[in-house]
Design goal:
Shape: elongated
Oligomer: single chain
Helix content: 55-70%
Number of strands: 4
Number of domains: 1
Number of helices: 7
Structural class: mainly alpha
Length: about 220
């Protein structure tokens, strides 16, 4: 193993990723005592169309931390010079995993801040009756998240003495990281922002873009 291969992920990058992974939880903890027990849970065309318990808000920082932490774990296991050919570029596995971890944290933080601001808005003070979350809209994001994490963490079983198969595993983990980011984005848009009649369209657009990327990345092993 060369010095380049053995160089670990820097402490600075690790600390930044961890802080960002915790940022949704920190934001929620800061305002938890000021939040009402019943909060707006979904907006449609600028108006609130679902109310829920503020305990629902805990899901965002919890899921965001698990996803971002898993991607950071993958980045720390990747070697410094692990690269995959993508069109005419060389993608660094470690860089992609770090960027995916940061992007997932920022999606979680942004959604958390938006939800907090909506819950503290004076126009939302007259709370309605809590309604159950429609898990149907989260089905596709859940598939992307689970499949992405499983692909991204395949380093645990990556063969160390087969360069060709090893490159395939690197590509699969990069594809998995992109699926996690896409799944997180779809979940936030579907559960909190997009009106019901736009949910499927929004999910389809994000999924299509990510699937094109995954196909181009894995094409050498699919053809």
């Amino acid at each position: 193993m060369t010095a380049s291969e053995s160089k670990p992920l820097s402490l600075v990058a690790t600390v930044i990723c961890l802080i960002l992974a915790l940022s949704p939880a920190i934001a929620l903890a800061v305002v938890w005592g000021t939040l009402p027990d019943v909060v707006p849970a979904h907006w449609s065309a600028g108006s609130i169309d679902r109310w829920g318990s503020k305990m629902e808000m805990v899901v965002v920082p919890a899921v965001s931390f698990v996803l971002s932490g898993a991607l950071l774990f993958g980045a720390r296991r990747a070697q410094a010079d692990d690269e995959v050919d993508f069109l005419n570029w060389a993608l660094s596995e470690r860089a992609v995993m770090v960027v995916a971890s940061i992007a997932t944290s920022l999606i979680g933080f942004g959604s958390m801040v938006g939800w907090i601001m909506g819950s503290l808005d004076s126009s939302a003070a007259a709370a309605g009756e809590p309604a159950a979350l429609s898990w149907q809209v989260l089905g596709v994001p859940a598939i992307f998240l689970v499949a992405g994490i499983l692909m991204a963490l395949r380093s645990l079983s990556m063969p160390g003495d087969d360069p060709l198969l090893g490159e395939q595993y690197h590509a699969q983990r990069i594809a998995g990281a992109s699926m996690v980011v896409a799944g997180a984005l779809m979940a936030v848009l579907s559960a909190l922002v997009i009106p019901g009649n736009m949910t499927q369209l929004g999910q389809a657009a994000v999924a299509a873009v990510d699937m094109i990327f995954v196909f181009l990345l894995l094409r050498p092993w699919l053809m």
